[in-house]
Every structure is written in structure tokens, then in C-alpha cells.
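Notebook entry, structure prediction.
Reason for the run: the old model in the group folder had no record of what sequence produced it. Starting over properly, with the input documented here first.
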Amino acid sequence: MKLQLQYPVKKVSINQGFGNIDAKYTSLGMSAHNGIDYYALDGTPILASHDGTVTYAGLDGSNGLLVVIMTDEQFEYKDGQAYFKTLYGHLKTGTLKVTAGDKVKVGQVIALADNTGFSSGSHLHFGIKPVLQGEQDWQWFNIEQANGLNGAIDPTSYLPSHREFTKEMKYLDFNTDVQKLQAFFIRTGYMMPVAESDFGWYGKKTAVAIKKFMVDTGTLSRWERLFWHGMTVGPKTLKALNQVYK
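New structure, fully documented this time:
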């Protein structure tokens, strides 16, 4: 049976997806972003994404105040089975509603969002790692520890489908919607990482990536290819993006 997660926030909006490449992650010894950053204002309730047992609740370096919840049973993973643990980072000091050893249910409030740790604004960093038990009851190991992401894997396939892109975008826009679009294109090879000053700006590099995506998905006709130079990303392209977003 495959693990099925629920979203850890009620209002789902992604600031940054899994796998985004940035110097701040290499400074932490990782190859890329090892989780999903959800939009969550200071004080937003953070929810357990599955049933399980709290294995950690406290300060954890760059993650700030962190809660870790592990499944109580094994689920499908690759050619076998594994336990999974989910991680909830940058939580608000003094708001933890769980401690290590507590049993939690999916949807239960475990803390409130904030900006603790290595973070430039209030949000939730959400991650998942497949784990195996060692020879002792208290020993657990990340199965993918050598993957350059501290053992984390992409949570997307374990979460419900979601329409991530809802607003049309136009050339020279500068906003978080463009940031999400760029992060997705970087992860999927449509564009190279951009300078921090260009992150969120719909300029020439983003326009080239959008055009290639539109051609690949058939949302740009042969005639339009001759004249499209980075204009509005409309309903057809938004639909195509949501069909393949990960």
C-alpha cells in the first residue's frame, strides 16, 4: 500500500518546490532544496500530514523549531517497503502542541508557523524521508542519506493533486507566481538557475523556457511559434502546467 499524505496547511500555496538549486542549500551541504516550502503567515496552524508517532519536537539547526512524525507501519517504497518520517520546520517558539512519543492523527494541529532557523520569512518547510530500523529499537536510518538531500525525497507524489498555477502571468511581471514557475522549470530542465535578483522576474530567460514548454505540450500552435515573444501565460498553458507540475 502506498503512503497517502494530506497537506500540512489548510490553504495550499507553494513558495518553493522540491529540488530548487540555490547557493544557500549548497552552503548547508545539500545539492538542492530538500522539501516543499508552503506559504504560511506567522501563526498559521500546521497540521500532521498522516497518522503516526512524534519522534522529535525541538530546535534543529537550520530548520529552526522542528517536528518529526514517523508512520507506525511500513508502506511501499521502490521494490520493497519502508517507514516514512515527515518533517515540519521553522515553527513558532512556544507553540508546539506535541512532544516526542505522542501519537497524532492526520489533520491534527502540531504547532504554528513562524520563521525560526535559517529562513528569510515566515513559511513551513515540509519534507519526507523513507527510513529503516537498525539492529536496536532506537536506531533508524535514512534510506537515501547519500542522495545529496540529507535523505529527503520529493513529497509531491504522496500528496493530493493540486492546481498550483491559477493566475495568468505576463512579460515583465515580478511576483511569487513567477518564482514558482521558475523553480518548476529549473527542476525540470527547461531553464538554468537564475540570479537571485532575477528570481520572480518574467524576463527573457523565463520567456524562452515558457515557449519551449508550450511547444512541448502543444499549447502553442505552429503559427503562434513565429510571433510569440513572451506574452501572457493564459488558461491553456496554466492547465498544462497543473497537469505536469511536481
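Summary: The chain has two domains: 14-158, 176-244.
The old model has been moved to the deprecated folder.
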